[in-house]
């Protein structure tokens, strides 16, 4: 759905239908869940089509899929893109009830990691299957030459203005890292807000635009380590992208990140929220960059999370549900 008029077009060989999303300001002011007003249109589109499976990637959309499933006898699937913690579910009116009804009514629910699947069982009593998201390992590759920066470089692609990403923790750890490696630099994604950007405009920190794919690949390839200090991430896709480019990674021991960084030859994890602990882990990850076998180990781990693997997992799920 989108706020504009409805449209129907073919993109890359796939028919895309965009329905009008009626204004929802009144619902949002009353703290209801997002994106509810278009659901009747989604349901009518499902009835009009001849789908074998209705696959929703948002819990409210899954309500339409569940009703369609009950009418047609065909399976509905919900792929949840986050972590259904209790604190998140109670932030919006109806959010917990919508997700619970959607998850229990679908033939299958998938989560991005074992950590996210655990929360489904804990918060909702629903068993979720784990299908990791896929990375296009043909688009994210090691460079043809030596593109690694001469100075020890930490790249963090996270939005600096999102508190749960904890970029401030990485920013504070930089001072500790520079005591050991004085030329170390921290590369951050440039925020749109000028005031926020000014807060990070200090010695040793570079703000770069990485909105375009090519710029992101260059940043991965030139870094010594890619860091994701956030808490509660369902997975951590940027870490896999970095590994696909042959660059080791750093992440917290929370959420789905440990399921990616599961061996010492590709990166490091840190505990807690102390800059000194983050700095210690960063220095360890930087040492990996200087080991000749690291790019190959990183690349091999990234291939475990390729788009092909993700597609195969969903195809197997569809076949199972349709066979049943």
Could you characterize the architecture of this molecule?
The protein is of the alpha/beta class. Helix 2 runs parallel beside helix 3 and helix 7 crosses helix 11. It is globular. The mean pLDDT is 93.
Descriptive labels:
single chain; 324 residues; alpha/beta; 6-stranded parallel beta sheet; 4-stranded parallel beta sheet; 42% helix
Fold topology:
Blueprint: E1 7-11, E2 14-18, H1 25-29, H2 39-48, E3 54-56, H3 59-72, E4 76-79, H4 86-89, H5 95-105, E5 108-111, H6 114-124, E6 129-130, E7 153-156, H7 167-180, E8 185-189, H8 194-199, E9 205-208, H9 213-222, E10 225-228, H10 237-244, E11 249-252, E12 267-270, H11 275-289, H12 294-303, H13 307-323
Parallel strand pairs: 3-4, 4-5, 5-6, 7-8, 7-10, 8-9, 10-11, 11-12
Antiparallel strand pairs: 1-2
Helix pairs in contact: 2-3, 3-5, 7-11, 10-12
């Amino acid at each position: 759905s989108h706020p504009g008029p409805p449209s129907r077009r073919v993109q890359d060989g796939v028919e895309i239908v965009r329905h009008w999303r009626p204004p929802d300001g009144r619902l949002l002011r009353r703290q209801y869940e997002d994106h509810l007003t278009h659901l009747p249109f989604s349901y009518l589109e499902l009835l009009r089509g001849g789908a074998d499976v209705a696959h929703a990637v948002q819990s409210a959309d899954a309500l339409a899929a569940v009703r369609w499933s009950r009418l047609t006898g065909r399976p509905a699937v919900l792929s949840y893109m986050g972590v259904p913690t209790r604190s998140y579910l109670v932030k919006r009116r109806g959010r917990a009830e919508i997700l619970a009804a959607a998850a229990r009514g679908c033939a299958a629910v998938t989560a991005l990691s074992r950590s996210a699947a655990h929360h489904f069982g804990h918060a909702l009593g629903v068993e979720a299957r784990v299908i990791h998201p896929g990375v296009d390992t043909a688009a994210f590759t090691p460079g043809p030459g030596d593109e690694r920066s001469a100075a020890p470089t930490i790249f963090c692609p996270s939005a600096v203005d999102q508190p749960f990403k904890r970029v401030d923790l990485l920013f504070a750890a930089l001072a500790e890292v520079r005591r050991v490696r004085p030329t170390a630099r921290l590369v951050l994604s440039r925020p749109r807000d000028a005031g926020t950007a000014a807060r990070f405009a200090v010695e040793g920190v570079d703000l770069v635009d990485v909105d375009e794919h090519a710029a992101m690949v260059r940043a991965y390839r030139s870094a010594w380590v890619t860091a994701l200090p956030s808490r509660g991430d369902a997975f951590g896709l940027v870490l896999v992208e970095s590994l696909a480019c042959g660059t080791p990674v750093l992440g917290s021991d929370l959420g789905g990140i440990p399921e990616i960084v599961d061996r010492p030859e590709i990166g490091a994890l840190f505990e807690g929220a102390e800059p000194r602990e983050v700095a210690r882990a960063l220095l360890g990850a930087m040492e990996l960059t200087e080991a000749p076998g690291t790019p190959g180990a990183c690349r091999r781990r990234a291939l475990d999370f390729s788009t092909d693997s993700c597609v195969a997992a969903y195809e197997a799920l569809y076949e199972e549900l349709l066979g049943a």
